Amino acid sequence: MEIPYTTQVRPDTGLTNPKLGIWLFLASEVMLFGSLFSAYALLRMGAETWPDQSSILSVPLAALNTLILIASSVTMVMAWASLKAGSLSKYRLYMGLTILGGALFLVVKSFEYSEKFSHGLYPRTDVFLALYFTLTGLHAIHVICGMVVNAWLWGPGTRMWADHREQFTNRIEVAGLYWHFVDVVWIFLFPVLYLL
Amino acid sequence: MTNDVAAQVRNYLTVFGALLILTVVTVAVSYVHLPTTPAVALGLTIAIAKAALVAMFFMHLNHERRLIYVALILTVVLFAALIGLTLWSETDHVPGTRFGPW
At a CB cut-off of 8 Å and minimum separation 6, what does A54 contact? Predict the structure, then answer.
């Protein structure tokens, strides 16, 4: 069965279906993370006291994670550019690096979490930690889901390159849009949770 | 690689450099320990600049179709309403309690 408008644009929207679809999905994700950020703002402003965030959380580790995710965004867009230029092997290299970046991010995150737990700091400890674990936990779940999709596109998904090159390239572009969004969320999480 | 893609790749690496610099700036500014309001304003401004770079260049929003722009502008408006209305509710005074405007 041929999926319609995966390479041709729809006459009424001027876009391929996947492109429009992913952007609408990302718009809904903005509202999801947006509501949690507004909960943070509301709870912090209404609180009588608020802990010094940078003394509880590790700024150097989070800064490292920021650099890791930004780098993985670069390798993700390079993976797409490699397919545009017709090179599957370059694509595999860059997509592999993107997945590696995601894995490194999660390793650092799990180290951060286990460090908190070993000091008796849990989501139930106070409002700030509840927000911290909820926001970064939801973000980490998004990273995991992105990695699963990227891993499939790195492995079995490449079968499509054989006879539907443009459609496969568009798939990588769409996966890339999701991955960049996950990066953008972290770009906001880092200053809000660690630095302010 | 074709020249077109090579030029795009140069762009991506330049943007990467800018993002690295802005990350360093964000961390450096946090060590200055500004009072809360300017700290929040500055932190969010730098974050918005970084997000804009990712959106424009990595997500190709610098040459996207109008319908995407319309959807995103609507999202921004609704997001601003979400934050704005939530924070505006903070100014409601609840009689007989200590909950009221800042």
Answer: A194, A195, B30
